[in-house]
Each structure stands twice: as structure tokens, then as C-alpha cells.
Specification:
This protein is α/β, with parallel strands linked by helices. The chain is built from 19 helices and 28 strands. Helix content is 25%, strand content 20%. InterPro entries: Alkaline_phosphatase_core_sf (IPR017850), DUF229 (IPR004245). One of its GO terms (cellular component) is extracellular space.
């Protein structure tokens, strides 16, 4: 997201940065003439251009991640998931310790000194401005219309008494002395909207979804351990360690857990047949309306819930890049107008004032908006999606300091959360950096965190709590998250401490679900094929053994490099890029999966290219010919 890119660009000026080796005998010599392409690269071009074309010497494990991540020595959970051995990885195992330095992040955050006097406040509809002598101050409102459009009102002069009433939820304040800007800031508030006349059940509970961008299950345990412990001890939150992303990035996974749409086809693998139906490109070009989608937020809205969407990004949930997203306001309160403001001014003008100079980070503003929303609409149920984009998106170590911030926020929301359904989840894990060269890092990238807490009285429902705990032992997909949210929206007002869950299931009549609600027994078998998880993102474990067969490795590597060059030649970036060759001396590793099992052999080739040194990997099989499955 370009909000992240903006912060990265100026990171040096920030106080905060918010942002086994065995020889396998008997391999048949494969003629180069038998090499064929079975499945082309799905999204290699994007990441190739982003990293290699710019000649950055950076490991590119972004894009198509390793779908078989075991090293043959890990413990696995067998029996629960046919065809899927779940990973058992210690978040702090030796292979990842070198990548973490919690103390560096904590010391950086605690050294911040306020450098800017925040002289304006927006409180309960009143804009207060403490102006200086000779200073003329004015404000305007930033009003979101859709995912792609924000309108601005005309500038309004702030009255002499320094207090003005305004119903705008995002206000930009600017002051000048003799034509020079003397003050520039922006604020948010939650202003209750008029009644929609939709009936609601007084027994409906609030539902709060907090999405931690790029936070894996392991990373959540590493960096936000205090917050996790508080959620478990205070709200009985239950951690699900095996949620699996269904695609690469945020938008694609949001398609699954908010729209129940499949972004990607299911490539053919030795373990599953090809399954079409991926709609990524189609979804991007469609306007998200009630006529063509079942956005889960509308399930809440149709039952009288007041709604809020808040992301620390200029983009909305689905409009990243050239995608359309919602064609109208998708919630009562859509706060992207606040973040859109920063792209109208130089960094040092507004962005630095609102964040760096007052020792605040984006998540502080997200906390405040969520707090205000929870206080609004007394007696009426509320549903919110709060997406923390910048905190962990670009950093492994930039999250530790925020543990105390999240814990304090959860403490401040104790009364509200005790009577609500609260989901803390990730969209995916970290997608770049050296840690992806480890088995743990590869798992992390496809294994976002997920926790759910129940209202206090529903925690007394032993059948429900026991069922949830049983389901923590199973593989989940983002489609299961959608099904769970849809059920909560439609049925939570009916539930009591004696409602049965282990003997029932959620089967709505108005749509066909791709996932299953985690509040009930989960159907089996549960593997990546049955859960619509493409193999290149699958966290299921397979035994991996290093293989010595240089000729096979070179043939496979050269074929993938040929594909890469063809993709670049056919792109708009061809004039900026060098022709790549296989770097035989830089990196050339070959491994085989499940070598003791009968059937088709699957291999992984890791290689580097010249001249950039960029690192890639590809999966291929040996039938009567060499078949490339995927590459990245």
C-alpha cells in the first residue's frame, strides 16, 4: 500500500518505524527436450519487476510461497487432517533468533520527545483551536464517498472564540501568520448517523474485528505476547494456530474472509486436481455492490447493526491499485478520509505533525476511533473492522513496542469487550526478508494469527467453548472466518448458555458457503485441497530431503529463467531490465518431497539469477517429462 511506501520513504527521519542433505539414488536423467511447461507463473511478473528489474539484491520469496515446508525432522499432528500434517514450530526456535531484536524497538519508542504543540482538538462535535496572536485559522472536512473517492468541503474560518461546531468526522485544521503556515493538523471523531429504520434485536452483541496486517500466528506470540495473555486471561480468548491464507496479499485474503470469494485457481498438484474458479482479476474490475456480492458487513447492517471500517491507509478494503472496491459508502463510518489527507501535502507538512512530532503512530488513532465508536449508539449493536496496516507490514522488529499499547487499549475496552464478540486476526504473515529463508519463516508467511473471544455469558456455554477448543487442532482457511462472521451476524441474538453447537451446523439458505463456521464441528477431510488453499500457500507439512542431481537442477532452473525473461519481454518494463541468466555459482539447491512415498515425485529448486543476484524458487514434478508446477 502506498501509505506504507510513504512511511518507508522517510523512515530515516522517523522516531518510530510504523510502519538435510541426503543423496537420492536412481533419479532418471531427463532430456532437456522433455521439459514442458505445465503451469505458468501466476504472479511472478509483478514481484520480478518489483525486485529484480530494479537490481535490488534481495531475496524474493514474496509471491508464490513454499507449499511444502517441513525438513523431515519436525513433529507433526497426524490423524486429525487427512493429507495434512500440521506444523509444530516454536516461534523462538534457533533458526529465527538472528532476525529478532526486541530491545532495539522498545528503546526507539521510549526515546520519543514531543516536538509539536497540538493546539486543536475535535471533541463531541466541537472543534477547539488555541490560536496565537495574529494567526488566522480555518478548517475543512474530508468526506469519503466510496473506496476510490473522497470529497473535501470548502475551507471555513474558525471563529474568534476558537470553538466551532462541526459534524464532519475528519477535520483538517490549518493556520497562517502573514501568509505562512503556522499550524497544520487533522482530527477524527465519530458522529452518530440518523436512524435507518432497521429493526434490531436488543440481544444482539457488538462484534469487533481487529485485522493485524502481516502478523502471523508465531509473530503474534513473539511480539504481542502481553496482549495475547491479557485477551486469554480477561476475555477467555481462544487462539487458533492453523489459519491458512488463501492468497498472497491483503486484498485477496479479504475477498475470502469478507466476501467468501476465491481469488485464485487451485493449481494441479500430485495431491489434488486442478480447480478453477479463481476470480482475482474479475473481482478487481467489479464494483462491490449488494447485487453481486455477499459482503459480511451487510449481514450485520441488515440486522440493525451500526458499522465502521477503519484502516490506516488511503485505500479501502478492496480498491488497492486499479481495483474498484465499493462504489458507495460501505459503512456508517468510513474513516479513510483521514489517511487520504496525507497525500495532498509534503511529508514534513502534515504527516510528520500528526505522527512523528507528537509521538503517535497510526494505531493510536485507530484505537481512538474504535473507542469512540464503541461508545456511540447506546443500546444498538455495532460491528467494526479495524485494520492495522502499517504497524507490522514492513518490519519484524517494529511491533514489540506496541505490545503495551495494545494491552492498554484492551484494558480500556474491558467492559465493552466483555459483552462482545472480539476477533483478532491477520490477513497473512510477513512476506519478505531473510527470515523467509527459514522453514519457520515460510510457514509464518502463510499462517496469519487468529483469536476469538465470546461475550461473558456465552463463555458459560461449555458446549461452545469445548467445540472451539477442539477446532483449534484443525486447519482453517479465511473462508472459515467468513462463515463464522456470517453466523454471528445472523444468529447471535438467539444464543444462550444452553444453546447446542456440537450437534448443529450453520447452513444459510441465501448462499453457498466455501468454508465452515468454527462454532460447530468442522467437516473432514481438512486439507488444502478441500479448503480451497492453493498448494503454494499451504502450511501442511511434507518431508523434504536434499538431492544431488546437478543436471536436473540446471534444466529446471534454466526453464524458469526462460519464463521470467519472456514475461519481462512482454511487459511494459522490458526496456528497463537486463536479460537474466541462471547463476549456477550463486545458489542452486535441489530437494525432493516425501521421497519414501510412492507416486509422482515433487522437487523444489532454489536458484539465483545474474546480474541482479535475485533469489527464486520453483516446484516441478517428474512424470514421463519434467513438469513445472509453480515458481516464485
Amino acid at each position: 500500500m502506498d501509505f506504507i511506501e510513504l512511511m518507508r520513504k522517510h523512515a530515516s527521519n522517523h522516531i518510530y518505524s510504523p510502519i538435510a542433505h541426503q543423496t537420492r539414488m536412481g533419479l532418471r536423467k531427463i532430456s532437456i527436450f522433455n521439459i514442458i511447461l505445465f503451469l505458468c507463473l501466476l504472479i511472478l511478473l509483478f514481484y520480478y519487476v518489483k525486485y529484480d528489474c530494479l537490481t535490488l539484491n534481495e531475496t524474493n520469496f514474496v509471491g508464490i510461497k513454499k507449499f511444502l515446508t517441513g525438513n523431515g525432522n519436525e513433529k507433526s499432528s497426524k490423524g486429525l487432517n487427512k493429507g495434512c500434517r500440521l506444523p509444530k514450530v516454536d516461534p523462538w526456535n534457533a533458526e529465527v533468533l538472528q532476525f529478532f531484536d526486541p530491545k532495539s524497538d522498545i528503546s526507539a519508542s521510549e526515546s520519543c520527545k514531543v516536538k509539536y504543540d497540538e493546539r486543536s482538538k475535535l471533541i463531541n462535535g466541537t472543534l477547539v483551536m488555541l490560536s496565537q496572536d495574529g494567526e488566522e485559522c480555518k478548517y475543512r472536512c474530508s468526506i469519503p464517498v466510496s473506496d476510490r473517492k473522497v470529497n473535501f468541503t470548502e475551507w471555513t474560518k474558525i471563529s474568534g472564540i476558537g470553538e466551532d461546531h462541526t459534524d464532519c468526522e475528519v477535520a483538517e485544521v490549518k493556520c497562517e501568520i502573514a501568509g505562512n503556515i503556522s499550524y497544520h493538523f487533522s482530527h477524527t471523531q465519530i458522529v452518530e448517523k440518523p436512524s435507518k429504520g432497521i429493526k434490531f434485536d436488543a440481544k444482539s452483541r457488538d462484534v469487533y474485528v481487529l485485522v493485524l496486517d502481516s502478523i502471523s500466528s508465531n509473530q503474534f506470540m513473539r511480539t504481542l505476547s502481553g496482549s495475547k495473555k491479557y485477551l486469554e486471561e480477561e476475555f477467555g480468548s481462544i487462539h487458533f494456530p492453523y489459519l491458512n491464507r488463501v492468497a498472497e496479499g491483503s486484498k485477496q485474503n479479504a475477498y475470502a474472509f469478507l466476501l467468501d470469494q476465491r481469488p485464485l485457481d487451485m493449481p494441479e498438484t500430485p495431491w489434488s486436481p486442478f480447480k478453477g474458479g479463481g476470480r482475482d482479476a474479475e473481482l478487481c474490475n467489479l464494483r462491490i455492490t449488494r447485487d453481486n456480492f455477499s459482503y459480511v458487513g451487510w449481514d450485520f447492517e441488515d440486522r440493525g447493526y451500526r458499522t465502521m471500517i477503519d484502516l490506516d491507509s488511503r485505500y479501502g478494503l478492496f480498491d488497492y491499485g486499479s481495483c474498484y472496491g465499493f462504489d458507495h459508502m460501505p459503512a456508517d463510518h468510513y474513516m479513510n478520509g483521514f489517511y487520504n489527507l496525507f497525500y495532498h501535502y509534503p511529508w514534513e507538512d502534515l504527516f510528520a505533525n500528526v505522527y512523528e512530532k507528537v509521538c503517535k503512530e497510526p494505531h493510536h488513532y485507530l484505537f481512538e476511533n474504535m473507542r469512540q465508536f464503541s461508545d456511540a449508539y447506546k443500546g444498538q449493536p455495532k460491528f467494526s473492522i479495524t485494520w492495522f496496516v502499517s504497524l507490522a507490514h514492513d518490519s519484524l522488529n517494529g511491533v514489540f513496542h506496541a505490545d503495551k499499547h495494545f494491552k492498554l487499549f484492551f484494558m480500556s475496552m474491558r467492559e465493552k469487550f466483555n459483552d462482545s464478540y472480539v476477533i483478532v486476526m491477520g490477513d497473512h504473515g510477513l512476506r519478505f526478508g531473510g527470515i523467509l529463508g527459514t522453514n519457520t519463516g515460510k510457514i509464518d508467511s502463510s499462517n496469519p494469527t487468529f483469536m476469538i473471544s465470546l461475550p461473558q455469558d456465552m463463555r458459560k456455554n461449555e458446549d461452545l467453548v469445548n467445540q472451539l477448543k477442539q477446532n483449534t487442532k484443525h486447519l482453517l482457511s479465511q473462508h472459515d472466518v467468513y462463515a463464522t462472521l456470517a453466523e454471528i451476524a445472523q444468529n447471535n441474538h438467539k444464543w444462550t448458555a444452553s444453546t447446542p453447537f456440537s450437534t448443529t451446523k450453520f447452513e444459510p439458505t441465501d448462499r453457498e458457503l466455501k468454508g465452515s463456521s468454527i462454532l460447530h464441528p468442522l467437516p473432514t477431510p481438512r486439507d488444502c485441497s478441500t479448503l480451497y488453499i492453493p498448494f503454494n500457500h499451504c502450511i501442511c507439512q511434507h518431508k523434504e530431503v536434499a538431492v544431488q542431481n546437478q543436471s536436473l537442477a540446471i534444466e529446471a532452473g534454466q526453464k524458469v529463467v526462460e519464463i521470467m525473461n519472456n514475461n519481462i519481454t512482454n511487459s511494459n518494463y522490458s526496456s528497463n531490465c537486463s536479460v537474466l541468466t541462471l547463476g549456477k555459482e550463486l545458489l542452486l539447491e535441489l530437494s525432493e518431497f516425501d521421497p519414501d512415498e510412492e507416486g509422482e515425485k515433487v522437487y523444489l529448486i532454489k536458484f539465483a539469477v545474474v546480474p541482479s543476484g535475485g533469489k527464486y524458487q520453483a516446484y516441478f514434478g517428474v512424470r514421463t517429462k519434467l513438469v513445472i508446477f509453480e515458481a516464485s
